[in-house]
Amino acid sequence: MADLGATMLLSGAAVLALLLAAFALSVPLRDVSIVDVAWGLAFVVAGWVAFAVADGDDVRSALAVVLVSLWALRLAAYIGLRKLRHPGEDPRYGKMRERHGSRFGLVSLFTVFGFQALVAWVVSLPLQGAAASTNDGLGPLAYVGVALWLVGIVFEAGGDLQMQRFKANPDNQGTVMDRGLWRYTRHPNYFGDFAVWWGLFAIALDGGAWWSVVSPLVMTLLLTRVSGKDLLEKSMSERPGYEEYVQQTSGFIPLPPRTKLSRAA
């Protein structure tokens, strides 16, 4: 069985192998956006490798890997099915392909697949910390972590399902989704992701892996400042009714909608 250092190394190698395989598949398909499906699967790979090789508490490790697998497989399936309904490369990557021309393959290897492999490995640290923990049994923090994970999966999966149904109705074209969970936060799916990873960190922290806090911090930064909330809101800012929605609805943490009276105050 492996110690923490070896567990981290082996998990990282497995994640890198998966993303390299996704890169190899993207070349003949001419579709780099398959990396979005591989992103979720990377955590399944990292978690199960850590569970298999680490010399730690099997109960904590099993809890972490089952929870992350449920989250990640749902996410990968959701993105994969969306790609089947709307085939073709994501416009973000299409612009990169046009900009780099014949160099795009090499550029995407490092800036898309390599970078996401590195980020996925960093974010997966609570899985490795939980697997390598020698503290026996689950303490209060582990149960707090499970509760946070449950909140997160409800908001992420529920928000995605509600948005999918909203977009499927032609009458909603060009309008703003402000119902269900989207009434309390403009980004229930991103908030759900946030809660899931703070929950997984709490499980790892219960086993003493305080250093894995870098994982939810990185995920929070990605969700709120890099590739999540801020980026999406820039693309939505010109949509009719969106400014009013922003004024009424919390930007991230779910809160009761603000009324016109409270905004004026």
CA radius of gyration: 20 Å
Helix content range: over 70%
Number of domains: 2
Strand content: under 5%
Distance between the termini: 61 Å
Number of strands: 0
Uncertain segments are: 261-265
Write the element-wise H/E pattern from the N-terminal end onward: HHHHHHHHHHHH
**In oligomeric terms, what are we looking at?**
single chain
Question: Explain this structure to me?
Answer:
- The chain has 265 residues and is an all-alpha fold.
- Helices cover 72% and strands 0% of the residues.
- It is built from 12 helices and no strands.
- The protein has helices at 4-29, 35-53, 58-85, 91-100, 104-123, 125-132, 140-168, 188-206, 214-226, 229-236, 242-248, 260-264.
- Residues 261-265 have low confidence and may be disordered.
Helices, strands, pairings?
Elements: H1 4-29, H2 35-53, H3 58-85, H4 91-100, H5 104-123, H6 125-132, H7 140-168, H8 188-206, H9 214-226, H10 229-236, H11 242-248, H12 260-264
Helix pairs in contact: 1-2, 1-5, 1-6, 2-3, 2-5, 2-6, 3-6, 3-7, 3-8, 6-8, 7-8, 8-9
